[in-house]
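hiii, so i know i said id send this last week but things got crazy w the move. better late than never?? heres the sequnce for the chain we talked about at the cafe, plus the structure i predicted for it. fair warning i was half asleep when i ran it
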Amino acid sequence: TTTIRLLTGFYSPTSGEATVLGHRPSEFTRETRARMGYMPQHFVLYPNLTVSQNLNFAASIYGVDPRRGQRVKELLEFVELAESAAATPAGFFLHRDFQSRNLMLHNGCLRVIDFQGGRFGPLGYDLASLLIDPYAALPAYVQERLVQKYMETLSGYSGVGGAFSIENYYLLALQRNLQILGAFAFLSEVRRKVFFRGYLAPATLNLHRLLQEPGGRCFPVLRAFADELPGMVEQRLLRFRLS
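okay and structure toks below
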């Protein structure tokens, strides 16, 4: 372990000299580090470092520009969102992918399919998955009415008091929306499953709408990115149509 840390520049030698790829570790450039791979024995966050310091440390290993303050700030917003959403009571069974294509009507009865990914989680996640589903692209006013209807119906059940709130629902909807965009972008651009391209625009517009709500003020970097995202997606889709 000590030798590897010397060779990667984490430790400075008390005597002697070592070179890697023709360079002393103290002289490594970003290009040199990009040619190296280092897997620590234990992948953990260092408890004596703050979240920001841990991010800076990981960024330095991956060769991110030393002037990375803005990038770290962006990542911290995602950490804040994830931690806030995770603080929601999570003792309820979730489908986890509760969107329109997994709901079927058969002989007048609702049937739910593709639930092998079910797990325990917060009540609002399945609701968010259904209401912001880009396959259905429900208007904002319909989403709002259905949230209110859900809350009215939920009040008739015992044992769920305090498990659902508009504030928690907002965080879960935001997190789910980001998950949808990430999955659909990966499937369409990396896996070349062009079917998903058509649903990037409604998912993008819904993310933009969510971040324009008062809660979006807590995520200024994400909000600024969402302002630019619809135009970026439109340009990408236009290039695809012309190709």
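btw The longest strand covers residues 103-106. thought thatd interest u
miss u guys!!
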